[in-house]
Amino acid sequence: MHNILIVDDEPLICMGISNLLVGAGLGIGQIYMAHNAYEALDYLRMEDIDLLITDIQMGTMSGLELMQQAKLIKPWVQTIVISAHETFQYAQTAMRLGAKDYLIKPLSGAQVMDTVRDVLLQTGKSDRPDAVYSPNVQEDFRMESPLEERMALLRELMAGERFPESREQLALQYGIELRGPYFAVITAELRLSDDLGERDRSLLRYAALNIAGELTGQGCAALGFYMGPASIGLLLQWDEAQYAALGPNKINGIDMTGRSLHFTIKRVLKLDSIVGISQILRGEAFVPELYEQARKAARWHQELPDHEVFYYGDFKWSQSSQEPTEEELAAQNNMTVELAVQYIHKHYSQKGLSLHEVAQGTYVSPNYLSYLFKKSTGTNLWEYVTKLRMEEGRRLLLETRLRRYEIAERVGYDSPEHFGKIFKKYYGISPSELKK
């Protein structure tokens, strides 16, 4: 069953789309409605959302900004954009951010149904029993079989062996060029059962490489290659315009790709994987170094076996690039969580506070901060923010004569209605019931 979040500042539109989908027989579980982007972000953090349907123009935070934040929280969430604007720039930006479709108001019921059905069929592919590997893997992933010589040249390129010669051969024989000028590398090691035969292993590796290629179809060029019998790699490259489009926090894009790859391999192939993510560097000469960064990052799984997606920049390497000792790593991690707690206590009442913003204040990626925070405190970061907001909201309700909208403002909510929903979910009673 799929859960859908509908976001529009016009309640009648939310209700209309919801009513249209309720009895459509599309395998829909829950439909949530939010009337601004801040409410939507809370639903994305708290609920298991599969599809986001959002308007663009919604006051303080636009639907496009919501899409960016949603990708940081759950990169695998699919999006359909609805808008009264036919402006090409809006549509282009929405599609670059991964929107599956861009629908113009006034909406046609048939068009909404067809679009939602198509998106859910794609996301629901892995819910079928035959999505677990069987001969169907070969049917589900129709990809040109990669030539072994091409794979060998890409591996040589990554390893820095015969770099100029390998690059030239790839360009001449296969039309593969390193244009960049910005590059990064993602690696994924599949955790395959010892019981699998060689053919099955090859097909699963083949399917994983196809998944990786599909995930990187927008915003950058990607070259997929086999690293070993159970591992794949991706060389990502951006031109100047694509790199600028990543925005000021460029690591978010590659981090989302890595997390999406891990999630999709798990969901579609039912396989665990260890993903390593390099930094982004300028210049093709750094490609072997980026490959080594991704491999080094993935090796941290040996020290942190309950974590599976690793970004190289999350670890403080010595000048000799030696891995931190166990004591150094523990000290780094404790400091990171302490900084996060301090930042949250100072800013929890800020409207629009995000995991990404907290991560910026602690100098690690959002993915790694989420892992460390949960491991250290036993609760996820956003649950901690909500706890502080609810406790302060409850105190203000009991100890002051502030109106509900004033309390909502003071604890970081855009509307008293949304504050009331979260409060009731947290305490089991509404703010008005508490006052009585």
UniProtKB/TrEMBL annotation:
Domain named HTH araC/xylS-type: residues: 338-436
CDD domains: REC_YesN-like
GO molecular function, one term: DNA-binding transcription factor activity
Pfam families per the UniProt record, alphabetical: HTH_18 (PF12833), Response_reg (PF00072)
Response regulatory domain segment(s): 3-120
Modified residues (4-aspartylphosphate): 55
GO BP annotations listed: phosphorelay signal transduction system
Keyword terms of this UniProt record: DNA-binding, Phosphoprotein, Transcription, Transcription regulation
Name of this protein: YesN/AraC family two-component response regulator
